[in-house]
Design goal:
The protein is an all-alpha fold. It has one domain. It has 15 helices and no strands. The radius of gyration is 21 Å and the shape is globular. The two termini are about 25 Å apart.
């Protein structure tokens, strides 16, 4: 049997935090290296903006990768909490098969629809070709990511967060090496620029998948050569995964529409948005790490039928995360000038970045409430309410607010982020009320 999970939020969070830090660093390294390449090669102008556009299109579909991994995490945690390891393993094997076909579908869709989607969101014509170059290899790599995500979710549910963390760290090292080789053209490899960064990512993700297979066998005792598929476990996975993915899809639809607003502001504001999102991603990872660790613990509590333990632990985790994230926002603002100068010397971009960061506290507080509490609700089996609220809040308040602030009031990119912050905070407060009301009690996926 697996070792008993130690329900200490900090012990579980630290490896996940480091893992997510390096995962986000992977994207930042691409942005930084492409930015430097763009500075010294005039023909590469617009490469950073192209990455921003390509990433938004990729994320619109890529969020579907979470359908299975999110479901696996919740269902496996509940089974392990209930001491039903055989059911947990069958859930994992079923999930891997599902994830493979989802990854294949997403990769194919992006390759076929990429250029049409770029034009749909008004991507400047001069960066459409660059955007597709980055999308091409990144889309293929999503097949590898889909399988790795399913296995990583399984390992975390078993409390094996350290092994997942180490895998991501090593992958980052390879990503940097591959970037140098393929972007700049070393060791006889052609100089590929933005396409080289995407190719590097693809190779790194393939290696990560292969390592994941080894960890699955070594730590859980499951082999990909002995896969099983069970309808019952698929239904449980999808009961959590589909609403979660639709919620995340709604978020990406919001970002898709928002990007169309940003594109109308010009290439400089597209670039500023890319830099802002890169900076905020390092604040986001605190919320994401605590949310992921707390969801695992919550799943165990629900499996043990300890609703009070789940309730109290989530409240404590939310408070811890709010304090840490608020401190991180203050630090980023104090260091905003040198950080912005590290990315660019463009005065307008620097001014815009600093202006948005000053009000990031509203956005990040809302994000903490949403990430921590929504993942806890999913871990209890309460998945429908967060989805309904996401559709209403993101597509109603988020898009409307961003448009009014940026276009009607003429606040530009700052107005767009203010609209997003308003939506996050409103939805976060609603989710907090949902948790405090205990409406999630008796929604366990494994009872009966």
């Amino acid at each position: 049997m697996h070792k008993k999970l130690q329900k200490n939020i900090f012990i579980l969070t630290l490896p996940i935090f480091i893992e997510l830090t390096f995962f986000i660093l992977m994207g930042s390294v691409d942005t930084i290296m492409i930015s430097n390449y763009e500075k010294v090669n005039s023909f590469a102008y617009g490469s950073v903006a192209a990455v921003g556009n390509a990433s938004t299109v990729i994320n619109l579909f890529g969020v579907l990768l979470n359908v299975v991994s999110t479901g696996i995490s919740v269902v496996v945690s509940q089974y392990l909490g209930a001491k039903k390891e055989s059911d947990a393993k069958k859930t994992i094997l079923t999930g891997i098969i599902l994830q493979f076909f989802i990854g294949l579908l997403i990769a194919s869709s992006l390759l076929l629809l990429g250029n049409a989607l770029f034009r749909l969101i008004g991507t400047p014509e001069e960066i459409v070709q660059l955007s597709y170059k980055y999308l091409f290899f990144t889309a293929i790599s999503l097949l590898f990511v889909s399988i790795s995500n399913a296995i990583s979710a399984s390992l975390r549910s078993y409390g094996r967060t350290t092994e997942v963390m180490i895998t991501v760290i090593v992958a980052n090292i390879f990503n940097i090496v591959f970037n140098f080789i393929f972007i700049y053209g070393y060791f006889g490899v052609p100089e590929l620029g933005i396409a080289g960064a995407a190719l590097s990512t693809m190779l790194m993700r393939f290696m990560t998948m292969m390592v994941s297979f080894i960890l699955l066998r070594k730590l859980i005792g499951l082999s990909i050569f002995k896969l099983e598929f069970h309808i019952t476990y698929m239904q449980k996975i999808l009961k959590v995964g589909v609403p979660s993915a639709l919620e995340n899809m709604t978020y990406n639809v919001l970002q898709f529409v928002i990007l169309s607003f940003v594109n109308k502001l010009g290439t400089e504001m597209i670039t500023a948005r890319t830099y802002i999102n890169t900076m905020l991603s390092y604040i986001y990872l605190f919320s994401a790490a605590f949310a992921s660790a707390n969801a695992i613990i919550t799943g165990y509590y629900i499996g043990e039928e300890d609703n009070i333990g789940a309730y109290k632990n989530t409240i404590k985790t939310t408070i811890y995360t709010l304090l840490i994230v608020s401190t991180a926002v203050i630090m980023v603002n104090l260091l905003s000038t040198p950080i912005a100068n590290f990315f660019t010397k463009d005065a307008l971009i620097i001014k815009t970045v600093k202006q948005v960061l000053m009000f990031a506290i509203i956005l990040e507080v809302g994000r903490v409430l949403n990430l921590v509490i929504i993942q806890s609700l999913r871990a209890t089996g309460d998945t429908t309410f967060p989805l309904v609220m996401a559709i209403f809040s993101m597509l109603g308040i988020g898009i409307t607010g961003a448009y009014l602030y940026s276009n009607v009031l003429g606040l530009g990119l700052f107005g767009i982020y203010l609209g997003l912050a308003t939506e996050e905070l409103f939805r976060g407060l609603v989710m907090t009320h949902r948790w405090l009301s205990k409406a999630w009690v008796n929604k366990s996926l494994i009872r009966g």
